[in-house]
Write a structure and sequence with these properties.
The protein is of the alpha+beta class. The protein has seven helices and 34 strands.
């Protein structure tokens, strides 16, 4: 009995320790030192101190974790110059000292912390005004909404209005309050503004005058003379005259824009950092990032946050569940990071094998009609119940990278010559692909001369016709895939030659030929996808396990076409190293997915043969 109690006690202590560890936060320095460990649900920067949330109550601590105000208030907006903006027991906001004395009484329905300018926004009877540190009203109660002052400006909204404006510390309108739906605070002498009516973003100068016409669906703030702006589906880098410095190639960007000469941008689902020319400085490799601040940026890799410098080197290893940006406090830089369980160390020889989720999605196609059909359930529930759902692990093979110069080709690599006898950059030869999965040989197809049924079987003729029709359909799909491979390989070779020439004119000429080949590749890929979809829905014959193979082939085919389309989008700008590399990477993924599709088609061949002979 005593042993049972001891075991129960140990389990309880372990549970308590685990729960406590999950609520632990560190105060971190840029050198990776931990100044303090604080038990809290959340830590939030709050001016001169750090706001602590424990349950439903808030308090304030310093950078060493020492409590200055206990966690007893319903809300705390911040602490500045000895005054904390808190929500008192009467439900009103006021300003208190660490000792609990209220120099500014709790009489406001809402309030903000004091800014560097010594001004706080306060709300009374549904309207906002501004006070100084003595509680004196500086700007009368005029606005329905107001923000704290930042860089000498506050964003305000008038009563019964959906537009916003911007005022200075004297209450003068820098930006009229009747033209814009959204505004960013001034940065680098520019104000991002979203116009009423069109809903497009443009930029104003520091005086509120229009500098860049509203034309973008999304933008970042300016920094180092540049910003990222999105017109259609991707972000481009622009300067203060609105000129494109780098073409639209980035999928997403952080709203802070450029800091320390770098901006956070997303490419192919991963985050990295680019300079003001659009060149990649820190590779696209992170699951999420925050913008640089004081030479450091928080980045997430494999589910954990750490910090890197402007060279992309880790200064604090990724080991946190959450992480904030560095900011100055009491004369030193700190960041707030939530404790996380350290991931197990990976051995160098370990390789990850599995399905890549984003590559298995069915993507939008040119023809909306057949794309809608693909989104519907294609397979009967009865067969799913009969054969069950089975996860198939796809082992990804390493493919060669795009060629940038006169790189030597592996003499042992086999390939099929594309048009004009140019060498292929792919490890697998067009139309063949490398064997995967169960190791069945590629390119080997069952004979169309049926031996499925004995000669005296009356059904023998029908089986022969069904087998022949099935094999022919599979053969046509593989031929379309082969045509696509040859075409996009030829397209990349044209681009490689143009890139290696170092001449814009040569690249421009080659790009035209590359575009023609790429269009052929896309057409052939679409035909293969259509034919595969049609065959999956109405196969000439059915065998046990056939539905499952079709379910495997379709996502791979769709994913391959998605990667091919991505390569096509980068073709025109592929003279730049970034777009050239991106195009090659997309084609590499296309080839890999087509290898998987062809492997599945080979298994279908073999399945038909087994079905008829058994």
């Amino acid at each position: 009995m005593l042993k049972v109690l001891n075991l129960a006690t140990l389990i309880m202590l372990l549970f308590v320790h685990t729960a406590t560890a999950q609520n632990g936060w560190f105060v971190v320095t840029p050198q990776g030192d931990r100044l303090a460990w604080i038990e809290a649900d959340e830590l939030i920067p709050a001016g001169d101190l750090i706001k602590v949330k424990k349950g439903s109550k808030y308090g304030l601590v310093d950078q060493n974790g020492n409590y200055k105000i206990k966690a007893k208030y319903k809300d705390i907006k911040g602490y500045s110059n000895g005054l904390a903006c808190v929500k008192a027991s009467n439900g009103k906001y006021g300003f208190t000292t660490e000792k609990g004395f209220f120099p500014i009484e709790a009489i406001y329905s809402d309030a903000t912390n004091f800014s560097e300018e010594g001004i706080a926004a306060v709300s009374n009877r549904g309207e906002w005004g501004y006070i100084d540190r003595l509680g004196k009203l500086l700007i009368d109660y005029t606005y329905a909404d107001a923000t704290p002052f930042k860089n000498g400006h506050s964003i305000v909204r008038r009563t019964m209005s959906k537009t916003v404006g911007m005022i200075d510390t004297r209450g003068r309108l820098v930006v009229p309050a009747d033209k814009y739906l959204q505004l960013y605070f001034p940065k680098d002498g520019m104000i991002a503004a979203r116009k009423l009516g069109s809903g497009k973003w443009g930029f104003l100068n520091a005086s509120g005058k229009l500098a860049i016409e509203p034309q973008y669906s999304k933008v970042t703030s300016f920094g180092d003379g540049h910003a990222l702006a999105k017109k259609d589906v991707r972000y481009a880098v622009i300067d203060k005259q609105g000129r494109e410095v780098a073409p639209a190639m980035f999928e997403d960007a952080k709203v802070e824009g450029y800091n320390d000469g770098l901006a956070a941008a997303m490419y192919e689902g991963k985050w990295g950092f680019i300079n003001t020319k659009g060149e990649v400085v820190v590779d696209f490799q992170f699951d999420d990032v925050q913008s640089f601040a004081y030479g450091k940026a928080a980045v997430m890799m494999d589910g954990y946050w750490g910090y890197i410098d402007t060279y992309g080197e880790f200064v604090v290893l990724p080991e946190f569940e959450k992480a904030g940006s560095f900011y100055p406090m009491s004369g030193r830089l700190i960041a707030l990071a939530k404790e996380g369980d350290m991931p197990p160390p990976m051995e160098e020889d370990d390789e990850e094998v599995g399905l890549i989720d984003d590559e298995a999605e069915i993507v939008d196609e040119v023809n909306e009609n057949w794309q809608e059909e693909l989104e519907e359930e294609q397979y009967e529930e009865e067969e799913e119940e009969m054969y069950g759902e089975e996860e198939v692990a796809v082992e990804l093979e390493e493919s060669p990278k795009p060629q940038w110069g006169n790189e030597e080709k592996d003499d042992d690599e086999e390939y099929e010559e594309p048009p004009k006898e140019r060498p292929s950059i792919f490890s697998s030869r067009p139309g063949k692909g490398k064997g995967k999965g169960k190791g069945k040989g590629k390119g080997k197809r069952p004979s169309t001369n049926t031996t499925a049924a004995p000669a005296n079987n009356p059904a023998s003729g029908n089986s022969s016709r069904a087998e022949f029709k099935f094999v022919k359909a599979l053969h046509d799909i593989e031929e379309s895939i082969n045509d696509s491979r040859l075409a996009y390989t030829s397209s990349l070779i044209y681009i490689n030659e143009g890139h290696e020439s170092g001449d814009i004119a040569t690249f421009s000429r080659n790009a035209k030929s590359a575009r023609a080949d790429m269009n052929k590749a896309l057409d052939a890929m679409e035909k293969a996808a259509r034919d595969l979809d049609k065959l999956a829905k109405n196969p000439p014959m059915n065998c046990l396990g056939m539905n499952k193979l079709f379910k495997t082939a379709m996502p791979d085919m769709m994913s391959a076409r998605k990667s091919l389309q991505a390569a096509s989008e980068h073709l025109d700008e592929a003279f730049s190293r970034v777009s050239h590399k991106s195009m090659g990477t997309s084609l590499e993924r296309t080839s890999s997915k087509l290898n998987e599709t062809e492997e599945t088609l080979t298994e279908l061949h073999n399945l038909v043969e087994r079905c008829l002979t058994e």
